[in-house]
Amino acid sequence: MQRFETLKTRSPETFLRAVGISLDQFSMVRDKIVARIQAEQEARPLKKRGKKAVTLTVDDKVLLTLTYLRQYPTFAQLGHQFGICESYAYKVYQQYLDRLVKVLGLPGRQALQDHDLLAILVDVTEQPMERPTRHQGAWYSGKKTAYDQSATDRRAV
Predict the structure, then answer these.
(1) CB 14 within 8 A of CB 93
(2) Residues of the chain where predicted confidence (pLDDT) is lower than 50
(3) CA-CA to 16 of 20 to 30 Å: which in 3, 56, 120, 157?
(4) Would you say the C-alpha torsion 68, 71, 73, 77 has a positive or negative sign?
(5) Rg (CA), the chain
């Protein structure tokens, strides 16, 4: 489990690599979301009545949302990572993505993936896997030629 409490004790570089934003930026976003939640509760005090199951803190819910935006894991993996079920991970992501968009004043959800975003930057670029350059037979089927250029050069000759 990689929850916020264990992640914030690590180095700032590790936090930045894992979440996509610095700890200071995370704290700013979290504070804005907490203020938004309190404003929603004050505006509609009777909307959410009853006993609530407290499984994740606000920090963990924001971390779950930013982790999904950073790495695009499945919700089953997120649920396992945060100790919740897959459907609850999806529900938390949807709720906090909406709150994140409203708090940052973005025009919509797709703006978080827009290249012109100035409010927050989450690095979600795809990085190629490192594969062996020699003796790829055990690791590579040979159906795609993007990884093994030397094999295509040998076939052409």
Answers:
(1) no
(2) 1, 117
(3) 56
(4) negative
(5) 21
